[in-house]
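re: ur question from the group chat, yeah i did fold both. here u go
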Amino acid sequence: QASLDTLAMLGGSLLFTVLFGLPLGVLLFLSGPRQLFDNAPLYRLLSLVVNVLRSVPFVILLILMIPLTELIVGTSLGAVGAIPPLVVGATPLFARLAETALREVDRGIIEATQAMGASTRQIILAALLPEARPGLLAAVTVTAITLVSYTAMSGLIGGGGLGDLAVRYGYQRYQPDVMAVTVILLLVLVQVLQSAGDRLVMRFSRK
């Protein structure tokens, strides 16, 4: 059950992290220096928000978000209660990784798309995102692995999953065998995610 809770937290938080983080990353890229919507004040504001959220230790973020989490999902406990802080903690990371992936796209492709009269929406959907796909998939992989560690930390405040199992049984009840099993399961999960991510990156990479 703890493994299933961890997978549920990982899947739910990763989905919302990508849904929120990708548009934020695109906006960071477009408003950056010498980009389509070069806007220094907006870029500095977005960068400040992203950097502030990234600098808050996740354990502290878990505690700070308890009232907001209860307001959003009705509880701060269990797998459901862990998803909002997981999303808030991982979205800035994914947004910054997405921005980096978009910066690696050949500028000539964007200029050629502009020259053909494409709209901004078409440039983003038909040129930027497809060309940045390998980098974005790598960003999703890194974010997913980071979320695995975050789900483990959420066990400190009753977030459920393998982290909660390790804290309640492995640490508080002094059962090192339970702790060892949870660590092994988390290692296996990370290896599976990394292998799957690497295969996807290689499949969609043109290099």
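okk and heres the other one u asked abt
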Amino acid sequence: MILKNTVVLLTGASSGIGYQLAKDLALEGAKLALVARRADLLESLAGEIKTRTEVKYYRCDVTSKQDVHSAISLIKKDFHKIDIAILNSGVAFRSSVLNYNSSEAETTFNTNVLGQIYFIEQLLPDFIKERSGCIVGISSLGDGKGFPKSGFYSASKAALTILLESLRIELKKFNVKVVTVKPGFVKTAMTDKNEFEMPFLLGVEKGSKIIIDGLKKDKRIIEFPWQTTLGAKILRMMPTKLFESIASKELKTKTK
């Protein structure tokens, strides 16, 4: 995949992986439409990279269907097209059964799943008509099992992974690419809140490089790091009873 001079829509660009991706995509020569809720941070980021490429920013709450519709309309007006959509916005909560909160579930699914669906809904008509385009969904290696205290997050990422797989199959005949990105632990403000040890934790610079390299190589699934990817695959194949036993012991250890 060629990134130079392509118009890239990037959500969740105000922090974390999205922030680093914006800087690295600018170095690749991509034209950037940056989207996030915090316009002040987007303005600062755009000011930092505007000497390298064409960049504009748009305040948008991805959980609002109207916000998404308005953002897409403005981007198409400014850039006339969208070549690649990197749908990166995401949230995570650590929730115990002792403080089970449906509002956290709503925020998680509205951001991690519906937020991407709203953008895809707006993108597909043009992508299918032009028989080109690429949708990049940021999922997680945590999509394969029901990890304790991460039920909302893991379930939302599992839903997203399945959704992207379905789209990839359907859109192949229209020459529209769908890429699923599944990071392990990447050091961001979101993971800084985790109270447990995060094995093979990567910096955002490394994570961004792996994603961009994967896009340039036309990978359908980009998973990293390899150690966590291998561990996630082993857990998926593990008998349910064994996984629940191990996870329960780990949970007891971390709550002592």
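fwiw on the second one: The longest strand covers residues 177-183. The mean pLDDT is 94. idk if thats what u expected
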